[in-house]
Amino acid sequence: MNTFQAAALLVLASHASAAQSRRPRRRSSKGETDFITNPLYAGMMRWPSPPNIMHRRATSSIRVDEGLVLRPASKSHITEIVEAFEETWPDVIRAMPWINPDNEIRPQIEDFIGDTERKGRTGLLHHWIMIRPWDGYVIGLIGFDRVTRSDRATWNLGYWVRSSEQRHGYARRSIDAALGWLGQVGELIVEVKVDPNNAPGSKTVVRTVRKWKGERYVSGDSAITVAGVRTIHECHLIEVGPNTSPV
């Protein structure tokens, strides 16, 4: 998923572990998620220079196919996003580790969506809500932010898909559509990070890297703490541009 798979806020990760004892427990599926960084806290992480002005454009809707559309993140979908987030707890904390579960969830998501919506209008960030077009059902989030761990990438890709809609190809289709959209404005390198212990997530990332002729970038690997567990996440790079397309 996983807007949308990226850097975790280590200072908040310990709260996630403590809060799990208060949340309804469910077996972790380690599903379709990857990190989506909150831009409100991103100053704590590595932040490259802003994208070239020639490569910037406002986030716009992407019609993936008849069963899926990506709409720019907006506060009009807050209720549905919170509902999807709570359905996917605790796995979703892997994708949004900056969430502090000791505090009310809705205001944190409102801040996140509000900031990404504003920055999306100027092309500084791009976040979309995965939506089923015929009924407006929220499936998940996908996005690009500027918090990267490698020395080559301009953007980081993150996403997550709600529990009930995982393993239906939504992550794969959304990733391909978002990469294609991003590459329309110029040649760019996108970073994708994944926990190797997350089998479904790793499968999605490996498939995406192969399809887009990307590469494994070992020097970009980094340790990330999620819910109190510190794991080395593998880095992959994908180059996109007007003359590139998936195979």
Please identify which CATH superfamily we are dealing with: Gcn5-related N-acetyltransferase (GNAT)
**CATH class call:** Alpha Beta
Shape: globular
By CATH, the architecture is named 3-Layer(aba) Sandwich
Average of per-residue pLDDT values: 81
Total helix count?
5
* Total count of strands: 10
Q: Assembly type of the shown chains?
A: single chain
- Sequence of secondary-structure elements: HEEEHHEEEHEHEEE
Q: Would you tell me which CATH topology applies?
A: Aminopeptidase
Class by SSE composition: alpha+beta
Distance between the termini: 21 Å
Q: What portion of the residues fall into strands of 2 or more residues? A: 15-25%
Fraction of helical residues = 25-40%
Our Rg estimate from Cα atoms comes to 16 Å
Uncertain spans, ≥5 residues at pLDDT below 50?
A: 1-29, 39-49
| Total discrete domains | 1
Largest sheet report = 10 strands, mixed
Describe the overall structure.
The chain has about 250 residues and is an alpha+beta fold. The chain has one domain (about 10-240): Gcn5-related N-acetyltransferase (GNAT) (Aminopeptidase), CATH 3.40.630. The chain is about 25% helix and about 25% strand. Strands 1, 2, 3, 4, 5, 6, 7, 8, 9 and 10 form a 10-stranded mixed sheet that branches. The longest helix has 18 residues, at about 105-120. It starts with 9 loop residues before the first helix and ends in a 7-residue tail after the last strand. The model is unreliable at about 1-30 and about 40-50 (pLDDT under 50).
